[in-house]
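The passage that follows is intended for readers who have already worked through the single-chain material. We present the inputs for a multi-component assembly, then the predicted structure in tokenized form, and finally a short commentary. You are encouraged to pause after the input and sketch how you expect the pieces to fit together before reading on.
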Amino acid sequence: MAVSEPQVTFWYGCNMTRHGEMVRLTMRLLEAVGVSADATGGTASCCGSPKEADARINGGMARRTVEAFNARASHQVATWCPSCHMNMQDFMAPATPTNFETLHITQLLHQHREALRPLLTRAVPARVMLHRHLGFDSRVPVNDCVAGLLAMIPGLTLTEQPPLPGHMCWSLGNVPGALARGQRETLAAMAAQGADTLCTIFHSCHREGVGLERHHPVTVKNWVHLLAEAAGWDYVDDYKTWRNGGEVPAAAQQAAGEVVFDRLVVPELRKAPLV
Amino acid sequence: MSHPARLLAESARLAAACTACGECVKVCPMPAFAGLPAAEPALVAAGMRAVLLGQPAAPEGVAWVAACTRSGQCNAACPERLDVAFMLRLAGMRAKGATGEAPLVAVKGDAGWASRVKAFARMTMTEEEQAKWL
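Having made your guess, compare it with the prediction:
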């Protein structure tokens, strides 16, 4: 019997490798709603944005990634990272013709939400503030898509703060003082609304947000974590544990490579929270 | 068309259509959020347009380009219906010297980016997942 080709390529991006469990849970969500998918990410399928100060390198990386996607059988590429998504629309597809549709993973899962609903049987008793940004939402209604998915979780109460500037926390982090201000405003909004849990949408917001747990009485989870809990699926947010002082197991250190771990991983994990 | 050539062509096309009226600057949340000094919106927009063209630009315009976080509120405000967010993205690349000019802003390089991305993959994914997903 012929094996059918995956319908969707889940393009999780490069910096999502910090959050292997999010990729794993997203793939499980896609499978659960009947969408066959392959995942791809890391440096080999980069959109080019890390090298945007050099248009020649940036363009070469972008072209290579589009050509790799064109060679796949899937007709849809579902993004996670808003930078990847915007790069695809603004630079990559206009330069290299594509044979696929680009959409965001939250759109895809929202489209299939009725297939997801019966799986979300476990109560998640939390008062959750959805961490929203202005930027990407003007292209893809990602804030509403995630809110719609979270609204299906029994026991969960959703609150929202006015969206922060930027398309994700990474962009605020590039402007002096902006990320710290955004985090202070988020904490103030959570306190005002009695929220105990901050729900991140994007990886960079999660990466920067988990440190809030160190000095503030809040829990930081991603939307896929909350859906997984409602479905009764186990997961471990290793990055949050490590970022908040938890010991990195020897096996993980060895996997990273001793020199790379000491020079590149430890400085990030030991970075002090901004607020 | 090469990527650098396309950046230059798009920059020129959009700069020619921009009237530097400053409506995009007025609705941008970043000047207040980032504490930029108050400046005349039209002057700021003209500075951004100059960056797009590789011309000498007012510092206020360069600062606005550097403070862009892709909030996207500018597009709806443009009376010419230009994709101002894209203009700012292009201007940001030009300001970083992407097409070979001297950078106007500090470029925050990350020489360890690729090694870090790969290291975290090895730390958080199984070998089977790495084989399938990287």
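Commentary: Residues 3-17 of chain B form the longest helix (15 residues). Residues 95 and 104 of chain B are 5 Å apart (CA to CA). How closely did your sketch match?
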